[in-house]
Write a structure and sequence with these properties.
heterotrimer; A alpha/beta (368); B alpha/beta (207); C alpha/beta (650); A: 368 residues; alpha/beta; 15 strands; 20% strand; globular; C: alpha/beta; Rossmann fold; six-stranded parallel beta sheet
Chain lengths: 368, 207, 650
């Protein structure tokens, strides 16, 4: 991997409309802060090589190298990435259902992992009083529940990991979007220095993602709704066409079209819908299986956790119908195709895929 | 009363250091002492903005014959330069030194902000010592700050250096007169200052 | 140090020029002294204030020079000798009152002492104040030695009374801050009665008297002023402060005034041309002693002017020469006009030697240049000596304030900037202040100029502006600017960096400190109460609470109210250290935690934060505390990203 530092990070990513606000570069040092939906450079750092550049999911990312390191296989053949198992699941815990999204599987799996001692804490998103997402570390069931539920705004989860002291020995689980997961994978390939060891990360749960909403979305929310009353957000799948806000007594909605201006431009260049480098990827059950999650198990670590969760009867499982799986794969492939086309529109050349390090043959396939 | 007379008339002395190190007090003590001995004295201290850890120097002119001397030395004009800080001594040697000058140095660096931030370099102390010797006819290079800390307070550095100046016999200054001035100006710390003065004299014998 | 209050005529002491001026005022029986701190004048009041009560006169640090001079004038109009001292910029501030005072004249002696700063070493500009004397017809005296500082200040009161107008004594840094031997004169008996002569006659109101520039016909007062001033030359002509030394008919006549006279004298001696060069010392430089000067102009073919900063005496003598009858000798004039003397910056002995040598057609080689080996070593060494730029003292709260301001402006993200002001806060322009200050003019200029920036939004201007000033500057000049902003709804934040002192000039008290010049309790004026009374958002922070201060600033920058005030209050470290003696914390760096130049820090503390007490150990690759310099304030502990800087409470 070529090595650069913060100046290049700004040129290539942050000032170039590619920043996903994953928090991978903030909390690393006193120079970069995430504030008000931007990564701000407060002081000049004159290093030639910086971890901020190295782990950013939008600087050059060699997808094959990551894939081989995790799975022993190259990247790209499968539309939804390497999958040992795909099924539908929902939590058997009623308390989790009240708070969590869809089937509550993420919270359930983390709860099991904590109980079993697989992890000491989970790095995930928590919404503050104003419903702005922040990265936190949840170390018990109560804290897990506080993090349950989706925010559609970008969340700087990785900042919470970056802030851990160097001597930390806590085993960690991560919950993130595909960009967070990619960042973590890059950190595994080139472990950051002066941080808590990345080896402490024992489990990565990725969330399916189409895009996040930023660029003034929060302002829009505060103008349209009384956020103090919100307990959950949802964007239900097609054929629904709305953004829903749940309060204790009702559901308020806006049409999805109103949200289009707020789609993070960086998301347009993302090829990963199902978080292909996670141990387990979790998404909604889509329209047919409201209240369920789609679960993709990818690695040995993921499989072990799922086994324990099954044994503990922490979740109810059913097979995923072929049609649903096909739809999922099609959606994922569409995202890849769109992203690659948009990238070459920007670079002006089929040969230049910007940050994306994929094989020539995969590129051709996606562009055909 | 002093037996000696000035080796030159007027005799020109510079006390150089960093703002806050006490060159103003030192020059006042020397000037007052020389007045007691019946000399005419002019002392210029540059301070003001320099006080914020900038480079400062006091120019002292001592004469039996002239009064109304100008406050500043001109290039190459110093007879004695005392440096409370080593590169300030060097700086003043480059401006006011000459092959006959006597130099007294406290070998305790105070780092300029440019050096701390990495934009500039502080010369190696060996180089500093060697250069002081090259730029002076006679020199005493001491660790007055260290000795002052042993006495309990870095503030004694100046009086120790006064002791070195005394011992160097560069000025027709005697111990009794300096002690009289110390007693008048700094009555509370007199005993400690006496000890510091003695320490300075001891350092001269060693070198 | 100096003891100027002793009643022992004939004693000799080593006095600063400024201390000698103070002694001169005492010997003239001063009853009223006012000033505003300003280098190089501050020691005058600094010397007078502590002895005022004992000696039976009133001394005051005023809120600014205008009020100081006005107050002193009141005393003078009431039969009490008064003195007001200030730096050059102070004269700019009092000029409106001064031009009006010239219309009315004064009662008992009123002396204006101005200390110029050639080279602008401790000022925002370089200014020669002498031309104001010519412009406003004020008698001007320039002492050349500490002794003259005393003698001429005393005489200035007499002169002022003889003429019925203010007289001006002008000093410069190299005179004010030089100690020389001064022989004391007598102290007068201490009986004074104040009485204001202008009265209201209830039976004949039209006969009432008043001081007023107008008299409803200013031109009539101008005539009176010129008549008063016309008596001045007579006093100056015979003054012992104008004196000649040298041969009867020298080849070259040097005309010199002020401290430059000592440079000229020494230069003549060094170049050994005393048999060919004569020096005419002028102590009264406006009006000129015309008779004396014309007589000497007759005797030389060449005249060289040594003065600073402007060619003031030079031009006045040339005017004089031009006005003399046709058959009068007209020598060649050398000085700033001809380029023989540098026309900017301060004069010094090196320069004067060079000017004199050039005019005399000789050359001068210093003891350094006479030895090529020494000279070459000097050249070598000069290359390796690092400079010593100004910085905030260790422990200075301004370092924290500008650090917080930098964070707030960067996080705010709209390219905001700081308008600066005079004092220690001015160092916000350079590294210790994180290079934040973008404009820098005069007292109160920061908030003044911010008023303008705050009204440019109609031209698509959206950069937030933070006007920074110190507490003393706030009282001196920023209040009208703040009120203007509030009233006209201008968009800016005024950040008052309140370190409870007029620090740059020597920690003099001001209205916010609750203490007066003489150490007596004064009514403490609360800055926040004053600002709150304007009905705008006011926040008070401790700059050492960096997180809180940054959050407050960010909030204020986005506040809908256009004009707001943030007071960053923490005591000046030098004031605290003098009082408490002990350091609050023992600071040290844990080398195991320090990651130095590695990613994650990149030497934030020594490369960016920049405090002289925190140094970089190159060999070890770690930061460390320089105990002799560190003030133990503890701020850096919160800056280190690895928590490697430790602080133990003492």
């Amino acid at each position: 991997m070529t090595k650069y530092a913060s100046k290049k990070l700004y040129d290539e990513v942050i000032d170039n409309g590619l920043c996903t606000l994953c928090g991978g570069c903030t909390g690393l040092c006193p120079y970069l802060f995430l504030h008000d939906g931007r990564v701000v450079r407060v002081h000049q750092c004159d290093l030639d090589e910086g971890q901020c550049y190295q782990c950013c999911p939008r600087t050059h990312t060699d997808m094959d190298a990551i894939s081989r390191a995790i799975f022993g296989a190259p990247y790209g053949e499968d539309e939804i990435g390497i999958a040992r198992e795909v099924f539908l699941a929902r939590s058997t815990d009623q308390e989790i259902h009240l708070k969590a999204q869809d089937g509550g599987i993420v919270t359930t799996l983390l709860s099991v992992a904590l109980t079993e001692g697989m992890i000491d804490g989970a790095v995930e998103t928590k919404l503050d009083g104003e419903k702005i997402p922040h990265g936190v570390i949840a170390r018990n069931r109560k804290e897990l529940l506080e993090c349950a539920g989706v925010s559609y705004e970008p969340s700087p989860i990785l900042e919470a990991f970056n802030r851990l002291p160097r001597q930390s020995t806590e085993k960690l689980g991560f919950v993130g979007l595909p960009c967070h997961v990619t960042c973590l994978s890059k950190m595994r390939l080139l472990p950051p220095i002066n941080r808590a060891p990345i080896e402490n990360g024992k489990l990565v749960i990725g969330l399916f993602c189409g895009w996040t909403l930023s660029h003034g979305f929060h302002q829009f929310l505060t103008e349209r709704f009384d956020l103090t009353k919100a307990i959950k957000f949802d964007i239900p799948h097609h054929p629904a066409h709305s953004f829903d806000l749940y309060t204790k007594s009702e559901t308020q909605s806006v049409d999805l079209d109103e949200l289009r201006p707020f789609i993070n431009t960086a998301c347009r260049y993302c090829i990963d819908m199902t978080a292909e480098f996670a141990d387990i990827s979790v998404g909604s059950g889509r329209a047919l299986f409201k209240g369920w999650n789609t679960v993709i198990v990818r690695t040995k670590a993921g499989a072990e956790l799922v086994e324990i969760a099954k044994k503990d009867r922490a979740m109810e499982i059913q097979p995923i119908p072929d049609e649903s799986l096909t739809n999922l794969k099609r959606a994922s492939l569409n995202k890849k195709r769109n992203a690659v086309h948009r990238i070459i529109d920007r670079t002006g050349s089929r040969k230049d895929l910007g940050y994306l390090g994929i094989s020539g043959s995969l590129a051709d396939k996606l562009l055909s | 009363m002093s037996q000696q007379e000035l080796s030159k008339d007027p005799l020109k002395v510079i006390i150089a250091g960093v703002g806050g190190q006490g060159n103003v007090l030192m020059s006042f003590l020397i000037g007052s002492a020389m007045i007691k001995l019946g000399y005419s004295v002019t002392v210029f201290d540059n301070y003001g903005a320099s006080q914020r850890l900038g480079a400062v120097a006091s120019h002292i002119k001592i004469s039996r014959e002239s009064s109304d001397m100008s406050p500043l030395l001109h290039e190459g004009d110093a007879d004695v330069i005392v440096g409370i800080e080593p590169i300030e001594l060097l700086r003043n040697l480059t401006r006011f030194g000459n092959p006959e000058v006597i130099a007294i140095a406290n070998l305790r660096p105070v780092y300029p902000i440019g050096v701390i931030s990495g934009e500039a370099e502080y010369p190696e102390l060996d180089t500093v010592i060697e250069t002081i010797r090259r730029l002076s006819a006679q020199s005493w290079i001491v660790n007055a700050s260290e000795e002052a800390l042993k006495l309990g307070n870095p503030l004694y550095t100046n009086v120790i250096l006064l002791g070195v100046l005394l011992g160097s016999k560069a000025l027709p200054l005697d111990r009794e007169t300096i002690e009289e001035v110390l007693r008048e100006e700094l009555p509370q710390a007199f005993e400690m200052n006496k000890a510091a003065l003695q320490k300075g004299l001891d350092l001269v014998k060693v070198d | 140090m100096a003891h100027i209050e002793i009643d022992a005529p004939g004693t000799t002491q080593l006095l600063l020029g400024n201390e000698a001026i103070a002694r001169g005022a005492l010997e003239a029986g001063i009853g009223f002294a006012t000033a505003y701190p300003g280098t190089p004048s501050s020691e005058i009041m600094g010397t007078l204030a502590p002895i005022a009560r004992k000696m039976g006169f009133y001394a005051e640090w005023s809120i600014n020079e205008m009020v100081a001079f006005e107050a002193a004038s009141a005393a003078s109009l009431s039969n009490i000798r008064a003195l007001s001292s200030m730096k050059a910029n102070g004269v700019n501030v009092i000029t409106d009152f001064l031009v009006n005072l010239q219309m009315t004249g004064v009662g008992k002696g009123l002396v204006l002492v101005v200390c110029d700063d050639p080279g602008g070493m401790t000022s925002s500009n370089e200014q020669d104040t002498r031309p104001i004397a010519k412009w406003l017809n004020i008698p001007l005296l320039e002492p050349s030695t500490a002794q003259e500082c005393k003698d001429m200040t005393a005489w200035a009161f007499e002169l002022s009374e003889e003429l019925g107008m203010v007289s001006m004594v002008r000093s410069v840094t190299y005179l004010s801050h030089t100690r020389g031997t001064v022989r004391f004169g007598k102290l007068p008996a201490n009986t004074k009665t104040a009485r204001f002569a202008e009265f209201y006659d209830i039976d004949n109101p039209r006969q009432s008297r008043y001081t007023c520039g107008m008299q409803f016909h200013p031109y009539k007062q101008s005539e009176v002023l010129l008549n008063r001033f016309s008596k001045a030359p007579e006093y100056c002509e015979g003054s012992p402060f104008n004196a000649y030394s040298g041969p009867e008919a020298p080849e070259l006549l040097i005309i010199s005034s002020g401290i430059c006279w000592t440079y000229a004298t020494e230069a003549v001696s060094i170049l050994q041309v005393h048999d060919r060069v004569g020096i005419l010392k002028l102590g009264t430089t406006w009006p000129l002693p015309e008779g004396l000067i014309s007589r000497h102009l007759e005797r030389s073919d060449k005249v060289l002017f040594i003065e600073e900063i402007a060619p003031f005496v030079e031009r006045s003598v040339m005017e004089l020469a031009a006005s003399l009858p046709g058959d009068h000798a007209r020598p060649a004039f050398y000085g700033k006009r001809s380029g023989h003397v540098r026309a900017w910056g301060e004069q010094n002995l090196n320069l004067v030697i060079q000017s004199l040598a050039t005019v005399m057609g000789t050359s001068y080689r210093s003891r350094q240049t006479l030895s090529p080996q020494y000279q070459s070593t000097v050249n070598e060494v000069e290359k390796i000596l690092p400079t010593r730029p100004l910085t905030f003292c260790p422990g200075c709260p301004h370092r924290a304030s500008f650090w917080a301001i930098k964070h707030a402006l960067q996080l705010d993200g709209r390219n905001g900037f700081v308008t600066g002001d005079i004092g220690c806060t001015a160092m916000g322009m350079i590294s210790p202040g994180s290079f934040q200050v973008r404009t820098y003019y005069a007292m109160g200029g920061g908030v003044g100029i911010a008023n303008g920036f705050g009204h440019l939004e109609r031209f698509s201007f959206n950069q937030p502006v933070i006007a920074v000033c110190g507490d003393s500057t706030f009282f001196h000049a920023s209040i009208p600017g703040l009120i203007n902003g509030v009233w006209n709804r201008s968009n800016f934040t005024l950040a008052i960096l309140d370190n409870s002192a007029t620090a740059m000039t020597g920690f003099q008290p001001h209205p916010g400190t609750g203490v007066t010049a003489t150490g007596d309790p004064g009514k403490k004026v609360s800055i926040e109460a004053l600002c709150q009374s304007l009905g705008v958002p006011v926040a008070v922070c401790d700059p050492f609470d960096l997180t809180g201060t940054i959050a407050t600033l960010l909030r204020m920058l986005r506040d809908e109210e256009p004009t707001k005030v943030v007071i960053l209050r923490r005591e000046c470290e030098l004031v605290r250290a003098r009082r408490d003696k002990e350091k609050p914390y023992k600071m040290y760096v844990d080398p195991a935690r320090c990651i130095g130049e590695e990613c994650g820090c990149n030497r934030l503390c020594t490369r960016v934060f920049s405090c002289p007490g925190l140094v970089w150990d190159k060999e070890a690759g770690k930061a460390m505390i320089d105990e002799a310099v560190c003030s133990g304030c503890g701020l850096c502990a919160g800056v280190c990203p690895q928590g490697a800087i430790m602080r133990d409470a003492l």
